[in-house]
Amino acid sequence: MRHIAVRELAYFICQSGNLTSEFFSNRDMQAGIEAHRHHQRSYNSESQAEVFIKQELTINEEIYQLTGIIDGVLKERGETIIEEIKSTTHDLDEITTGYHLEHMAQLKIYGYLYALLNNMSFIHLRLTYVSIIDYEEKSFDMVLSQDELENFTFDILEKYTKWLALLDESAINKEKTIKEITFPFENKRPGQHNLMKATYHALLNNEILYAIAPTGIGKTMATLFSALKSLKKNDKLFYLTAKGSGKNAPIDAIKLLSKNGLKIKTVDITAKRKICNRQEKNCNPDECPFAIGFFDRLTAATFDIFEHNDIYSAEVITEYSNKYKLCAFEYQLYLSYFCDVVIADYNYVFDPNAHLVRYFEDDTYKPKVLVDEAHNLISRSKDMYSSEISEADIRKLRSKLNGYKPSIRADCNRVLEIFDSYRDELAEKATYCTNIPNTDLTTFLNQIKIKCDQIFDENKKIKDKDEALDAYLKILDFIRTSEYYGPTHRTIAKLIDDVVYVHYYCLDASDFILETIRESIYGIVFFSATLYPIKYHTNLLTKGEGKYLDLPSPFASNNLDIIINNSVSTKYKDRADSIDTIIETIEVLTKSKPGNYIIFFPSYAYMKMVIAQIGDDTDYEMVVQDNSLNDLKKQEIIDKFKNTTNTKVGFFVMGGVFSEGIDFIGDALSGVIIVGVGLPMVCDENNILKDYFEEIYHEGFDYAYTYPGFTKVIQSVGRVIRSESDRGVAILMDDRFTYNKYLSLMPPHWTNKKVITNSYLLKKELKDFNSK
User: What is the pTM of this model?
Assistant: First the structure.
């Protein structure tokens, strides 16, 4: 017997309407619950709210049990009325019985089940819409026969069973082919078997595992293959990456396994700005042709793609979304419900405002999670629970919505008064910091939000709406962040260019990550080549919980020549004095062997200082990273490095897009120069972090500066050796690289290192290395 939720049945087959701004508003969920309760409180003593119902139906010799909760079974003047309640922000005058066909379908199915259970030939149905703005109501009443409702229900059910047949076929194929597939390579790399074994057991036993997996182990295939082997019914596998380029490896791995017989539904979730059908910066669903009628076409598009494809890459999503005129971004999110593997950014699991609710606030599915380049999650998770707003945002919103009702002017003025009080505090100090949230600020911002909701709902044409929405969304984000404000948060106020900014700053998001894992995840593996020191990463991701595995590099250590120049200081005050030595080192390196090289700097400012002194007259082509780099320019630079006909030198920034997640294989990269130890900028925020971690772990400076900085160094050096045949040079320029602390942080496979501080010996070393 198959169990089917009435709501699921009605919404999948009969969904209709537009992808409106109402659909996107997270506020509607809680507000909708309150609207339901408000209406149900008006029921008389004989009426019942939230009535569970179940009934078995047989179709095509198969038995299905339909279940659901009826919003109201009313008793009015001796008559029974089945009521379905829907909350809305829409103008009630514009709502008809055809507003959303799935609403009426759900009511009719409930009506049929109730009539069948109670031997009623006819039944009174009522569909009620309640405005979440003012609790005004509009109802549609009808009396239908059981026969009419039976025909309707079985017609819907028959269509749905065709979808269930596709799901069943997919589930059978998944289970069968997962058992049958074998590892796609004849030989496993050193360390790969151990990683596979540890991953499999961690996911099977609902554990937390950290794996330090150096470049070349084949961590993507190892973790993905083992995770697939651990999947059971209702398990979903999430492969998380920090950057878009990081998704290429798991997608390629799934494609390779598919060629070898694997059949598993996989979706690659792409950022909205990259996959938008119209390539628009600011989305206005109320006017977009890909949003209008979105739900009318969604079911047909879902049947089509599900029947003909297993891997929903960005290209496949774009093809089908254009074919059916659907918003590609929302289409891919919807498809994820029916996929077994979801490849996505960290925020779809760990960000409370972006995670896929169906998986992480519902016990139907059991997510298992792989976190690639996991060192990035520390800073990313803090951002997820932080938010900032400025007085300029409030002034902009007040200006753009001036004249609209209800007026937000008085509330905006109250908020600006709070900003003025911060301005007074900042007259005596550069930064104001407290561990207490400003509840008055949050209260007034919430009042502004409520009024803005009504303004946007009632006025579809607003001049400069994009600018108003930009400020509104910042308010919304700030309010949401305030809900998570706790001991690991600080309220920081700063004056920048005579504008006051207030920042709810999360210092440590490990409590939130661990809570997500405990409540919603059934096994997780964090892996990266740079989880050094391991205690730092386990503390700041899972409060020290979890096992760890430290794997050796599969490559010969003498293929990477580590040269340390400890005669140079790259500290801020010494940077001008270091420029000549950096330029001289570049000259020696590029003349030692034709090829491509990268110089990684700790900041754009430092990089520009060196570039300015080099000038235009060089024997090599300069490739400079811009701080406003877009995807097209990024790819152009990558393509340049594939060309080895002339010597090129990339001037890049550590921690940027070129320092991780990109493979420069073979002759594409012959060496790197690392300028400095990668310390984050010394600033008030990082010093607040330092003080916090000193109190918690007694390693304040290291947690705030040393460890995050050296992670960037390891990642940057990791660009050099990407395969067994690669050979290359890494020159580390800073006196601190020979401090015991930094030597202890260097990966075990950095054994081939030596200290060289003059050009003559450097030339000799490079000549000897290149001749081997």
Answer: 0.93
